[in-house]
Amino acid sequence: MSKTQEQYHINDADQLVEKNEYLLDVREPFEYEMGHIAKADNVSVNEIEERLGELPKDRRIHVYCQRGTRGANAAEILERNGFDAVNLEEGYSAYTGEYDSANDVKSGSASMSNANIELDPNRVKVEARGLQCPGPLLKVNEVMEELDSGQQLEITVTDFGFCTDVEAWARKTGNTILKNEKSDDKVVVVLQKNPPQPDTEGAGHQMVETKDGATMVVFSGDLDKALASFIIATGAKGMGKDVTMFFTFWGLNVIKDPNAPKKKKTGLDKAFSMIMPKSASKLPISNMNMFGLGSKMIQYVMKKKKVDALTEMIDKADKLGVKMVACTMSMDIMAIEEDELLSNVNFGGVGTYLGDAENGNLNLFI
Questions:
Q1: What is the CA radius of gyration of the chain?
Q2: Co-location of 68 and 125 in the same domain
Q3: H-type helices in 34-112, by residue range?
Q4: Which residues contact 30 (CB under 8 A, 6 or more apart)?
Q5: pLDDT (tens digit, 9 = 90+) per residue, 17-75?
Q6: Quick check: bond before 134 cis, omega within 30?
Q7: Which domain does 143 fall in, by range?
Q8: Are residues 262 and 222 located together in one domain of the fold?
Q9: CATH code: domain of residue 77
Q10: Residue 147 region, left (φ>0) first, then alpha (ψ -120 to 50), else beta?
Q11: Considering 27, 59, 94, which residue would you say is the last residue of a domain?
Q12: Does residue 327 carry a catalytic annotation?
């Protein structure tokens, strides 16, 4: 069988590690830090062409990413540059393992009693104001790696989504959050580094797939695509799944509050606000929008066919317990403030999304 005919799956990873084959994780560094296959190196697919000199030409490179798509792209780039590369299909999200029940304490501050742990007056303090997601998480990873077990780190950021991001990070890494406070203009978090768990060497980091969760990234601001996302979300919730919807960039328009107070903005912030839809009922459709006429037509047909309007679907999803998260980094870029979004929306960054995505067997990008 030729190389192009050979197929590898992520389930082959452990066997490849045992055979001392070369594995390359092509996800972003922060994804790699939150869990990866034992002995795998990390070069982001976005940097791979600039870092070809770091990769072995005399060995087959087994590439993987989160879901398989980036891995396939990376393998194609490597082959084009004369490497022997294959993609491990389905990616890291399908690479599952089980935590020992005794290791439940490694789920960060939420599962660990820190009532008797005092803040160390000599704790390492890091100033990370102005860093956007995933910058604060990367800074935490970098500094915590240098600390000894028992040492504490205090980090101050201005990205208020970091509050939830760092909780997900702590659960993944087994460290403890002693303080997580948000004030008007900053977030202050204090963490304590815990000893490494005994399964972090040899067995490698593994992601748990519990089969009871569903996550989706809502990137589009089109009415029809937003409708599809909420139909799937409410359906999944009705089937007993824990559902998280992560709204980013144009998707933030879907969860705007039509009754939000008017904001005085200037420059590009004002331009963004003027050209973007004011709420879910004002969204365009992806095809045949015809300067808004197409959107009105489809909403008329939905009403005639007794299909819930998007605003009603959003309300229903909230009542069912669907978790809606706004990407704070995208909010900053799109000049959208917290009180311009619906009151039931949570705020977070990529760490929040990845923390929920690891517990799902349904992950969508819409």
A1: 22
A2: no
A3: 69-80
A4: 134, 137, 138, 141, 350, 351
A5: 889 999 999 987 767 777 788 889 999 888 898 889 999 999 999 999 877 888 988 99
A6: yes
A7: 101-200
A8: yes
A9: 3.40.250.10
A10: beta
A11: 94
A12: no
Would residue 205 count as lying in a domain? Answer: no
**Among the options 65, 133, 163, 327, which is catalytic?**
133
Start-to-end CA distance of the chain, whole Å, equals 37
Let me know how long the chain is.
366
Shared domain for 222 and 350, answered yes or no, is yes
DSSP three-state, residue 58:
coil
Provide the number of structural domains found in the chain. Answer: 3
Tell me the residue type at 71: G
CATH number at residue 259: 3.40.1260.10
pLDDT digits 0-9 by tens, 159-198: 777 787 788 778 777 888 888 888 878 888 999 998 876 5
4 Ramachandran zone, left/alpha/beta (phi>0; psi -120 to 50): alpha
Half-sphere exposure in the Cβ direction for 291 (13 Å, CA):
0
What does the CA dihedral 159, 165, 169, 170 come to, rounded to 10 degrees? 90
